[in-house]
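U., I forgot to send this yesterday:
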Amino acid sequence: MKFSQIFHFAQETQLSPDVQGDMPEKTGWFATLSSIWPVHLTGQRKVSSSVGNVGDALVLKQQVLAPDRQDTVVLQKVPAVKGFALRRHFFPGWELLIIAVVLLIAGLAHGINMFHYPYFEDDEGTYMSQAAAVIHIGKLAYYTYWYDHAPVGWLQIALWLDLTGGDHTFGSILFSGRILMLLMQLGSTFMVYYIARKVSGSVIVAIVAALLFALSPYGLYFHRRILLDNITTFWLLLTLLVLTTKRITLNRIWLSAATLCIAILSKEIMAFVVPVMAYLVYTRADKSNRWFALIGWIVLLGALISLYPLMAILNSELFPTGTLLGGNAPHVSLLGSLLYQGSRGKDGGLLDLTSNFWVITKVWMQDDPILVIFGTISAICSVFCLKKYRLIGVIGLLTLSLWLFLGRGGEVIKFYLVPLLPLLALNLAFMLGLLGKAVSTLFQRLLHYNKTILRTGEQIVIIACVAAIVLSIPSPSAGYGYGSSDISDSHNPLMFWNGTQADAQDMATAWIEDHVSHKSRILIDEYMWSDLYDDGYPYAHYYWKVQTDPAIRDTVFHDNWRNFDYVATTSQMLVDMQTQNMTLVKDVIDNSTPVAHFDTGGWRVEIRKVNK
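Result:
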């Protein structure tokens, strides 16, 4: 029988109603052809189903209903083999192996020695102590919560502590936090791969993007730390994944609003990506409901974010003291904290080459020249591709919007670059992919190679470009990348994996627990606060709170250095004492004598006894 006859017969053949009820639209062709083809389907053959539960399959069997008619087909639904849907809708087996290798590299690079390097910053102690407060006393902080950040970030840490059995399941509470950062880093690396794979359609581009992100020297230094920036990066990538990797439905749009809300309430800087995300929602939504989707997304996002100011309103802490609606009673306030945060570090920003932004940017270029320099150039180029490659252009816009935040003319701290790293890696990988594609197209026009050769050549071009970029960067011994003095040591580029910087901090905490009375009043860095508090030191207090919180400074210590017994100094405490004019902290240190000191790699901790 000719194909034209088969086509004609397929149009005219009608199946019985009981068969039609369970049969997806696309299986009618197969059922019809199977009745014509001279092959008896006495066995089983699976056909993917477009209705019912995901992963269901249709099994076709020949059944003789009449002697003169042996072409009737009956379809039955049976469960599909496990893993079938994963392979069909996500990745083939060989690519799953590639992903596993990429994640293994990321996990080893991040996880090896992460408890020993870098040192524990006071912010890490702050977020872990606040997460512990959520679990143990049902409050957002042991100290006065002053709306310095929205609390969703450490609420996630609190959930992690609760799920893993408490503060000290892995030893120090800081170890538990760093393990969570490792898991989030692995999740972020996978999402970078997935986004790059779906947007570019290229495995090699996805591998390049994921490894650029996972092996970033700057990233290795700060991704290990318990920072809200790492948490918000995870949720930013999840939002981007939801909006870019599949056909957009309204459910996916509502989900993206929820994930972006979590990102914003984990670290407020993500508010700067809302306009670009709104544009992405508008362009990705179906034309039939585009405005409905956009307006609904904005309303849902706004409603979820409004829970934060609503909390302040319910606590009578929205307006500052001394205002018409704030009253005269002293209290913390959300708007007051936002105004304070916005006023920090005011300078010319992007427009002033002597501003703090440019000073820090030069350090970033030294720490991670590949992503900061080449990734930013790629982001600018991506924007010019917006019309032809919309998703690539949107990721470029997201990158530049965060750069604009950094260059706004306000406070810029070194770890503020963290959310930009995956975007910079994606931009660079996409541009290399487009370059490889352009070279492949050129060779196809000139030499008429077959597609296999062209595809191989395209991959070689991408790999060669990556190699050229890496080789163009000065070596770590010159003080760049893994050898940058800001994050490592030019004499020991393997500092990430053999450094012992944090060991001195652990030794100092252990010394206090062994030699200092539990009733002693101690001035400390926040990194050791949770461990000492859990070990029975209720009068050990963080130096920032001692200096700035009236409930601690005036009520507990009566603003008098003689009411302290010990002080554990760190480099950060000494710098803050000088730059922030901490008079009480200075008096305590000036009237004390060293009794022990620890230094295992450049972060000295000194225990001093106060001379009363």
